[in-house]
Specification:
The complex is a heterodimer of chains A (324) and B (258).
Chain A: E1 4-8, E2 10-11, E3 14-15, H1 18-33, E4 37-42, H2 46-56, E5 60-64, H3 73-87, E6 91-95, H4 98-111, E7 114-119, E8 121-125, E9 128-135, E10 140-146, E11 151-155, E12 172-174, E13 187-193, E14 206-210, H5 220-230, E15 233-236, H6 238-242, E16 263-267, H7 273-279, E17 284-289, H8 296-299, E18 302-305, H9 308-323
Helix pairs in contact in A: 3-4, 5-9
Chain B: E1 2-6, E2 9-11, E3 33-35, H1 37-53, E4 56-62, H2 68-74, E5 82-86, H3 96-107, E6 114-118, H4 129-137, E7 141-150, E8 154-161, E9 164-171, E10 174-178, H5 190-196, E11 201-204, H6 206-209, E12 218-224, E13 233-234, H7 240-254
Parallel strand pairs in B: 1-4, 1-6, 4-5, 5-11, 6-10, 7-10
Antiparallel strand pairs in B: 2-3, 7-8, 8-9
Classes of the chains: A alpha/beta (324), B alpha/beta (258).
The complex binds flavin-adenine dinucleotide (FAD) and adenosine monophosphate.
């Protein structure tokens, strides 16, 4: 039976929305392939997760809570590997988040199974899973077929659409994650949250980014204001990061974050190949640049050729009006 | 301190990939090859540790011998002491799991206190190999490291997460994957590049390491070009404010993205 397990990531009890996107997609595939969708939650509150898990399509929610409230790769790796050995899913989906990118290879190495990173599409063809992922920073796609069961597949946030139905809460099944005997060597001593309340770039539905065209750190507020009006995350080109105007955590591109939001607004960004690498999979791209020949217009869907110092504040105001 | 740095040679980030239609293989002729940018942070960190506490740094790579120039210029000339190239035709199609297996075989030949990786290679964009190696060797790891402090037989590393960082304590030996922000890699000087030619560079095969070439767990079916994007619709108006208002309207009513 081609059953699909979906790892549900929680931090401080809050579940990452990529989980619902993965469950929705897994359900579409499981229905076609004749299998079930199993949500797997480590730590957190299973009863709270069971509702949305069921509504998005999970048949069951497996939960192991003991000592797993906070992430460390060793205990989580043992727990997920133990689950896989016992339940034998065909496929395990893990969100390509900071946690997921750490957990997926760790678990795969424990199981000796295939691991595919950062997938954007997943199909079941002739009895085999086929995974599509961008390589060379999105300059091309590769389709791969994992040769083991299970196979662990990392899923890029926003690659799939979450679909909430009227399904009943998923029945909760407690499982023994076998982690009790594990004493992790690497221990997370402290978690420092730099930016409470900030929308996270890689998960955002809308991203507004500023480039060298903003001319100085004092003008990044223009980008942040537009982002705030849109409920968006604020990004930047490497030029802005290297100049020290904003922190590296904002950088979009080949050596920064990869984003794929519904809307990406590039302000004063020329569109260098390394920048495009990080955002070209965005569904709708808007460019605001005073140079009509800037390469960013080659990938943009909509554009304004103009001075961002005039356009961006006016756009912020117009957006505020529309969104009330 | 004995430090190993695992490095990969990758196509330059400027590389354009021209694929008209799906293909089983990528045509890589004409690619300019450089050290993976994230591996440069790993090399630099190793050199700084050596400068502070002494020790020896071995750069290890799996790939064809065309990597020699990169190893000399970007590893040996900036402070690595020796290099090992694992070159085996059987590894031409190796996936991350197979590369990790081969690196483990090389790493087991010596006792390293620290094994450093980049967070990901900018060609396959996988971000797996360092973590796979750690688990296969039974070593603890910290991934996505942006700050490192070494103590006696232990380390403290800052690990980047969404909207913040984790501060992780870990005993040695350990595996780290290095992220931008950890340091500023130095450039090699011309005299050091000349001198690097004298440092040992060993080329070995899987058989030399005492292993059979590992099989890949993932099979590549095809490469394809990303979907083409339409042409850009320029939005104008009497002045910037009018253009901005019109853009907001289009995004709201037509594209329905805000
Ligand atoms: C190995 C490597 C990795 C890299 N990784 C990344 C990466 O991850 N991300 C990244 O972004 N870059 C990356 N780069 C850098 C990249 O090549 C470019 O240098 C960078 O993206 C340029 O940033 P920019 O567009 O902000 O600046 P510029 O190229 O200088 O463009 C500024 C733009 O602003 C416009 N402008 C100026 N004033 C105004 C105004 N008043 N109103 C409107 N428009 C205005 C100009 O017309 C111009 O198009 C990398 C480079 C290398 C070599
Ligand atoms: N062929 C290789 N030889 C040596 N090290 C490698 C090789 N491939 C990957 N690595 C290391 O593993 C890291 C992650 O690579 P990847 O998992 O392929 O994205 C790289 O930054 C390198 O440090």
């Amino acid at each position: 039976m081609p059953n699909i397990a979906v790892f549900i990531e929680q931090r401080d009890g809050a579940i990452k929305k990529v989980a619902w996107q993965m469950i929705s997609q897994a359900r579409r595939l499981a229905d076609a392939a004749g299998g079930e969708v199993w949500a797997v939650l480590l730590g957190g509150d299973a009863n709270a997760a069971a509702g949305p898990a069921g509504a998005h399509g999970a048949h069951k929610l497996f939960h192991a809570g003991d000592q797993l409230a906070a992430y460390d790769s060793e205990r989580y790796g043992v727990a997920l590997a133990t689950f896989c050995r016992a339940q034998k899913p065909d496929l395990v989906l893990v969100g390509a988040t900071a946690l997921g990118r750490d957990l997926a290879p760790k678990t795969a190495a424990k199981l000796g199974c295939a691991c595919v990173s950062d997938a954007i599409a997943l199909t079941f063809e002739g009895g085999a899973w086929e995974v599509r992922r961008p390589v060379y920073a999105g300059k091309c796609f590769v389709d791969v077929v994992p040769k083991t069961a299970p196979a662990i597949v990392g899923i890029r946030p926003n690659a799939f659409v979450a679909q909430e139905g009227t399904g009943a809460p998923a029945p909760v099944v407690a499982f023994d994650a076998g982690q009790a005997q594990v004493t992790p060597k690497a221990v997370v001593r402290e978690i420092v949250t730099a930016t409470a309340g900030r929308v996270e770039l890689t998960e955002a539905d809308i991203v507004v980014s500023g480039g060298r065209g903003i001319k100085g750190p004092e003008h990044y507020a223009l980008i942040e204001d537009l982002a705030a009006a849109l409920g968006a995350a604020a990004g930047a080109s490497r030029a802005v990061v290297d100049a020290g105007w904003v922190d590296y955590s904002h950088q979009v591109g080949q050596t920064g974050k990869t984003v794929g939001p519904n809307l990406y607004i590039a302000c004063g960004i020329s569109g260098a190949i390394q920048h495009l690498a990080g955002m070209s999979s965005s569904k709708c791209i808007v460019a605001i640049n005073k140079d009509a020949a800037a390469p960013i217009f080659k990938v943009a869907d909509f554009g304004i050729v103009g001075d961002l110092f005039e356009v961006v504040p006016a756009l912020t105001e117009a957006v505020r009006k529309i969104r009330g | 301190m004995k430090i190993a740095v695992c490095v990969k040679q990758v196509p330059d980030s400027e590389t354009r990939i021209s694929l008209a239609a799906p293909a089983a293989k990528l045509d890589q002729t004409g690619f300019t090859r450089v050290l993976n940018p994230y591996d440069a942070y790993a090399v630099e960190e190793a050199v700084r540790i050596k400068e502070a506490r002494g020790g020896e740094i071995t750069a290890i790579t799996v790939g064809p011998e065309t990597v020699k120039e990169t190893l000399k210029k970007d590893c040996l000339a900036v402070g690595c002491d020796k290099a090992i190239i694992i070159n085996d035709p059987a590894l031409a199609e190796a996936d991350e799991a197979a590369i990790a297996e081969v690196l483990c075989a090389a790493l087991r030949k010596d006792a390293y206190d620290l094994v450093l990786f980049g967070i990901k290679a900018i060609d396959d964009d996988s971000g797996q190999v360092g973590i796979l190696v750690a688990e296969k060797l039974g070593l603890p790891h910290v991934s996505t490291v942006t700050k490192l402090e070494l103590g006696d037989g232990r380390l403290t590393a800052h690990r980047e997460i969404e909207g913040g960082k984790e501060i992780v304590d870990c005993p040695l030996p350990a595996v780290l994957t290095c992220q931008k922000g950890l340091n500023e890699p130095r450039l090699p000087s011309l005299p050091n590049i000349m001198k690097a030619g004298m440092k040992p560079m060993q080329v070995v095969t899987c058989a030399d390491l005492g292993i059979a070439p590992p099989t890949s767990l993932v099979q590549v079916k095809q490469y394809s070009p990303p979907p083409a994007r339409g042409t850009c619709r320029l939005v104008g108006g009497d002045d910037a404010a009018a253009a901005a208002r019109e853009l907001a309207r289009v995004l709201n009513e037509e594209a329905k993205v805000i």
